[in-house]
Amino acid sequence: MLFAGSVIGREKGRGSTGFVLVLLLGPLGLALIICLSNLKEEEKRRDKQAKLFAAQIAAQQCNTTMPFDSMAGFIPPPPPGSEPKIRVASNGSDLGELPVSEVKSRLKSGQLTMSDFYFDLDAADWMPLDACPKI
Length: 135
Known about the structure:
Elements (H helix, E strand, L loop, with lengths): L1 H10 L3 H11 L1 H9 L3 H25 L4 E2 L3 E2 L10 E6 L2 E7 H10 L7 E4 L4 E4 L7
Antiparallel strand pairs: 1-2, 3-4, 3-5, 5-6
Helix pairs in contact: 1-2, 1-3, 2-3
């Protein structure tokens, strides 16, 4: 019976516990070791959860490098071949996202001035148009 308690305990990651329980309690100890949880399975489950947690953190860290708009969430990059847009504001009103060519033409026509603003995603703040590298 000591051998059986030791073998069952070892299979559950509790080798010496199985031996001691059977030694002290006899058949009742054997029943107790059979009822105890499997430490090896619990360790596997904890390892799996730790790997999943690490993968979630890595995914979140990858997402933080993407442009973020507090109102709309993550902003995907424009499709290839499309004209870049910038968000423009003039006289306290948001004009929305405009293609860079339209902003340049509005600057030439006088509808916009270099002291009007654009939203810089990197700075997460409104900046004067004269600081915009796209113009």
